[in-house]
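[agent] plan:
  1. take the single chain provided in the ticket
  2. run structure prediction with default settings
  3. attach structure tokens to the ticket
  4. add a short note for the reviewer (M.T.)
[agent] executing step 1
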Amino acid sequence: MSFPVTINGNTYNEADFLNYGHVEKFPEIIADVAASAQQVADDLSTSQTLLSSQGLTGTSTTSNTIGTGSMSFTIETGKGFVAGTGIKIIDDASAANYMLAEVTSYNSGTGALVVNVTDAEGSGTISDWNIIPWQAAIPVLSSSTTTGIATFADADGNQLASSAHWKITSGGSFTGSGKSMWRVAMQSAGDTSIGTGTHTIDFDDGDYAGEITATGNFTLATDDFPSADPSVTLFKATNWGAHTITLDAGIEFADGVAPEFTASGTDLCYLFIDEDGVETIGVIAKNLGTV
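[agent] step 2 finished; step 3 output follows
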């Protein structure tokens, strides 16, 4: 990662993270990435409103069975669908039933819509449909640098609907002004308790436990973190000081001294892995409590 880098209007330099600077700067950079993600979500909501106003959404009461191939629907007149438009046709009663299709033809005077369904999920014969843009019509998150309207898709290249939960993984990163932003866990797999064996923080699998409670001695390991970019994740460590926590060999600590965890209470911790795979772990705030 090259410095300086600007995220959410704030510029960070390499010197900001030296001599305990990471204690202050890691929470700030996390907040800036989160703010950037929220702006993306807000922009998407605005885009959806615009799509509706341009006639790129619709409804239909035509009865069709979930499946693939050519299908016909009658929707509202005066819509903006043209041949080649990608659409998602969703069962109004259950979003688990849907079809992905491409418009073959649309008659704006009669509302006659012919589509070619290429993918379908669920089953049943449905007579109450919602139709929304899909593919190129919906912004998607990709791993490439883009200009103009941003794109958004999952690691497999599948486009994400507005209801999807987005996360930055090793399959993609925000980029801007030639500077690649740090990849940060934006999704939590939930809290976990462990008293034996190994707990692995797996970047690709989205295994970022919000709170790891120690009930006995265990080993903390990492897996599938990006090999070329720095990565950081935050987590809560509860009652770690009362047990023996074995960490990866070669892990670094501030001043070369392993952190002292709270025996009966919760610490806010960070795990940082640089572009060379060197791990650093530390405590940002000890024995969390309320005022």
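[agent] step 4 note for reviewer: Residues 188-285 form one domain.
[agent] ticket updated
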